[in-house]
Write a structure and sequence with these properties.
Elements lengths: L10 E12 L2 H5 L4 H21 L3 E6 L2 E7 L3 H21 L6 E17 L2 E7 L1 H8 L5 E3 L1 H7 L2
Parallel strand pairs: 4-6
Antiparallel strand pairs: 1-3, 1-4, 2-3, 4-5
Helix pairs in contact: 2-3
Length: 155
Amino acid sequence: MEPFNDLDSPTERTLLVAFTDVTGFAKEFQNRTNRELFDLMSQFYELIGNDVKISGGKVVKFIGDAALLVYPEEDAKRAVEALQQLKATADDWLKAHGLSGEFRVRAHTGPVICGPLGTAGEKRFDVLGDTVNVTARLYPNGFTLSPELQRHLRP
């Protein structure tokens, strides 16, 4: 059972929040056609989505080469291990497709409000709160865990 499918109203939860992106993305694709870009990103989204789902997380959204991911906070250790594996898998995928960018991950844990958000006719699962903002502001250094998340992972 996916831990986020049962939310039909705004719910406060503590989650592990992660942002991912690819360095040099715009430059990599400036000499490719829109169709080439679309096809590659379709494959890339599938790769990310499959790995995240298998590891118990959820892709909240993709924006170009970036993704917002969440995991249950109680599975933080397993989520960090999954994110490390995802980084390795994504970096290998980029190289295999002749792309020189690096897949970066930033992760933090804390309270959020999550649930369906959007227009009256099109609501999608989303997360909001200071935890999301802190995660977005972490220095992207390949694989970055916030000090709070690092403390949370200690035995």
